[in-house]
Each structure stands twice: as structure tokens, then as C-alpha cells.
Design brief:
By secondary structure, the chain is mostly helical. The chain folds into two domains: about 170 residues, Cytochrome Bc1 Complex, Chain D, domain 2, CATH 1.10.760.10; about 220 residues, Cytochrome Bc1 Complex, Chain D, domain 2 (Orthogonal Bundle), CATH 1.10.760.10. The protein is about 30% helix and about 0% strand. The protein has a two-stranded antiparallel sheet. Strands 3-4 form a two-stranded antiparallel sheet. The radius of gyration is 24 Å and the shape is globular. The termini are far apart.
Length: about 450
């Protein structure tokens, strides 16, 4: 009996020694790296790992861009300021709201270029908090008058990879919106599609009016802005050079440079194999393999221009302003196209820096990345208004176990997280106003 115990002990010690062998650990890591590389090559459209790389933000030639709005350093520099410029907030519902908000009020770096709250608030909001979570309704403004939208504010991060913008894709004259001219209704924001630009540009121009901005001639002509407009748009007649369209085009140019290219995943793709943990690499193998997330989330931004119904909840309930359960926006793509086949279908979002703002889905009904992964793994709809006939064919149980769910979550939540988005903020504005908000509470919150 003692002899048997001795043999078992020797076997266990040998097994433990093998498991602790540095060479075996290295071999295992190398195997995972090799499997990930092979998996990526199988799903990449060009068969190369480089297919998933984001360009650097200064590599303007390799950033996707609208041919009608070519990127230049001068245009990007101007747009960076205008995007954050609270001095453009001239059409506020009350005099007290003027010059207190900007595009960045609902799309700021601290929240991954989303809103830090479930329903973003522009005009009529007050405060900021640490990452935008402290913004709320200004009690001096009626709830029916504040600037809010019926769906979650989408991120402007990696927007260069979207030819159509918004959850229903209504902005943009090309790509999925070709032959939708009948929906570009005069007197609505969609009419801006007639300008012929892609979605990033169209949204920036249309959003100028939607979000109650205005052109302050003195702000432009009496500050550094004038010279910057002249440098950014030398070919544009001076009678048009300082107007809404050029402001929108400059903002769009800046938005196209908002790339999460310092995320661990991007560093890994660029040869830094230690940038991802072993668990994140296994999560990536699941993402591009067994879980088949890549069937919808593809390319450098891990998004697509497709629209799917996944049965997620709408932006309704407590602390949601104005919008009812039967709001047309809850029909998704169909709210733009008018086609019942598009009912409840929403555009596939990009996946970087999700944990900066803990609200997921078009209605912000999920609060952790793991909740979304679990939801898709189980494939049981949250929104019973969505008929099964509309659900995406890809919305089926993934059969992932708990360990795999954790690995996939780790990859999405941390592997795709760029920790340095504050690099995209301006040092100051030519107006010398505060940003992204300029109301009294935001000034306190942001320590201006």
C-alpha cells in the first residue's frame, strides 16, 4: 500500500513539474497565437490579419473618407474645435441655455464618445459628473423642451467605417441608402441626404439644426477660427466658407480620425503579442470562431452596414424623457425606409470602448458587456413586441459555457478598450468657453 502511495506521489509531482515547465507554457501560448492567426485569416475578406487593423489617426490617406470631403490636417484641426465648441449653442430653448452645450455633450471622450447616461441630453441639460454620468435635466427647462433622442446616442468612435449613420441608418446618400430618395423628406433632417455626402458628413450637417446650434459670425471672424476656416476650405467661396455646411464637414473630418487604435487588440495585430492576455486571446478565438460574432461585427471597427432584429428592449421606462412605447423610432430601420420588412432592425454597432458607458443596445437596456454576451448566447428575446419572423437568422443559441462567456466578455470589454481617448480633446477653444458643457454645474464638475 505504501509502495502504491509512493508511486502516486511521484506521478503527481512529475505532473505538476510538467505543468510548471516554462517551455510548455510558452508552447501553449504559441499554439493559441497560431490558432488565433489562422482563425483571423479564415474570416478576413482579404485573407490577411491586417484586415482588422485600424490606421493611426494621422494617417489620413488610409482612413476611410468621403470623396466629397477629403481629409486634410487643417480640416481635422478645425473640426476638433468645432465639435467641442459650446459657443455654437445659439438656438437653445431658453436664453440661459445658450453657449452651454456642444456636439460633445452627448458624444464625449470620457464615455467612449457616447453619452455617459442612458439617454443623452444636449440643450436643456445641466452638469457632467466625472464621465458624463452626472448630466441631468435642467429644472429651468420643461421636460418636453429638452434636446433628447428616442434611442441611445451612438458612439462617434470609429465612425469612419460607417457610410450610413444612426441606428436606423437614415443619414448618408450612399451605400444602404441608395434608392431611398423618396424618404429624404423636405423639412426633415433626412433632407440633408440630398447634399450627396456619406453618413458622417450628413449627420454632422443635419445635426447642426437638430441640436440647436447656430453660426456666430463674430465668434468666427474675430478669433483664430477665421484663419482656420481659410486654411481648411480655401477653395470654397467666402460667402459660404464660414457657414453650416463647412462647419459640418470639418466636424465630420475630425470624427473620422476618432479611432481606437491604441486598444490591446490593435497593438496585438501590430505585432505586440503580449498586449492581450491569454484569456483575451481565447476570447478572440471565440469571437472570430465558435461564437461567430464576426458574421455581423467585421472589419477594423468590428461593425457593419447591416441591420438586424435581435429583440432588444427600447428606450422607455423610468428616467426616459418624452418617448412612448409606440414611438416610430422603435421600429428601427423601418422608421426610415417605411418598409415593414425592416421592422425592429437596427444597425450593427462598433464594439470598441464599450465599458466607458454602461448602457448597451439601441435602448440602453443592458448594463454590462457580459449581459449582452449572455443574452446573445441564450437567444431569448427581451422585447416581446418583436415577432419571431423578424429575428435575425444569426440570433440563435451559441452554446457557450460560462468559462467561454467570460473569455469572450474579457476580449470585448478589455481587449477592445483604448485607454487614451482623451488624446482627442483640444487644449482650449478659441471662444475660451468651457467644453463639452459650459453650464455652471458642468464648470464645477470639470474643475474649470
Amino acid at each position: 500500500m505504501k509502495h502504491n502511495y509512493l508511486l502516486i506521489s511521484v506521478f503527481l509531482i512529475s505532473l505538476i513539474s510538467c505543468n510548471n515547465d516554462p517551455d510548455q507554457v510558452i508552447d501553449k501560448e504559441a499554439e493559441v497565437d497560431q490558432e488565433l492567426e489562422q482563425t483571423l485569416k479564415l474570416v478576413a475578406e482579404n485573407g490577411e490579419v491586417s484586415y482588422f487593423k485600424l490606421p493611426t489617426s494621422t494617417d489620413l490617406d488610409n482612413i476611410p473618407q468621403d470623396p466629397k470631403n477629403p481629409l486634410t490636417e487643417e480640416k481635422v484641426a478645425l473640426g476638433k474645435l468645432l465639435y467641442h465648441e459650446t459657443g455654437l449653442a445659439l438656438n437653445a430653448i431658453t436664453d440661459g441655455g445658450k453657449r452651454t452645450y456642444s456636439c460633445a455633450s452627448c458624444h464625449h471622450a470620457q464615455a467612449g464618445f457616447q453619452a455617459g447616461i442612458r439617454q443623452g441630453i444636449g440643450d436643456g441639460g445641466i452638469g457632467f459628473g466625472i464621465a458624463g454620468e452626472g448630466r441631468s435635466q435642467n429644472n429651468n427647462v420643461n421636460a418636453e423642451q429638452i434636446d433628447v433622442q428616442p434611442v441611445r446616442s451612438p458612439s462617434t468612435l470609429n465612425s469612419a467605417y460607417q457610410v450610413a449613420q444612426l441606428w436606423n441608418g437614415q443619414f448618408g446618400a450612399v451605400g444602404p441608402n441608395e434608392d431611398t430618395e423618396a424618404q429624404w423628406t423636405e423639412g426633415t433632417p433626412k433632407f440633408a441626404n440630398h447634399l450627396g455626402f456619406e453618413g458622417v458628413e450628413t449627420q454632422a450637417i443635419a445635426g447642426f439644426d437638430v441640436h440647436r446650434l447656430g453660426v456666430d459670425t463674430s465668434l468666427i471672424m474675430d478669433t483664430d477660427y477665421k484663419a482656420m476656416f481659410d486654411e481648411a476650405f480655401p477653395e470654397v467661396d467666402k460667402n459660404k466658407r464660414y457657414g453650416k455646411e463647412q462647419i459640418g464637414l470639418a466636424m465630420a473630418a475630425y470624427e473620422r480620425t476618432l479611432l481606437a487604435n491604441e486598444a490591446p487588440w490593435q497593438r496585438y495585430l501590430n505585432g505586440e503579442q503580449s498586449a492581450l492576455t491569454q484569456e483575451q486571446k481565447l476570447g478572440a478565438i471565440l469571437f472570430f470562431g465558435k461564437a461567430n460574432c464576426v458574421s455581423c461585427h467585421n472589419g477594423p471597427a468590428l461593425n457593419s452596414m447591416e441591420f438586424y432584429a435581435l429583440g432588444m428592449g427600447d428606450l422607455t421606462g423610468d428616467n426616459v424623457f418624452r418617448f412612448t412605447v409606440d414611438d416610430p423610432a422603435h421600429k428601427g430601420r423601418a422608421s426610415f425606409t417605411g418598409n415593414s420588412e425592416d421592422d425592429y432592425k437596427f444597425k450593427v454597432p462598433q464594439l470598441y470602448n464599450l465599458k466607458d458607458s454602461p448602457f448597451y443596445g439601441h435602448g440602453g437596456t443592458f448594463n454590462t458587456v457580459k449581459e449582452v454576451v449572455t443574452y446573445k448566447n441564450e437567444a431569448v428575446i427581451e422585447n416581446t413586441n418583436v415577432p419571431n419572423t423578424q429575428l435575425a437568422l444569426e440570433f440563435v443559441p451559441l452554446e457557450l459555457n460560462e468559462e467561454e462567456i467570460d473569455q469572450l466578455t474579457d476580449f470585448i470589454e478589455n481587449g477592445l478598450y483604448d485607454p487614451s481617448l482623451l488624446r482627442y480633446l483640444p487644449d482650449h477653444l478659441p471662444s475660451n468657453l468651457n467644453f463639452p458643457n459650459n453650464d455652471s454645474q458642468s464648470q464645477v464638475d470639470l474643475s474649470f
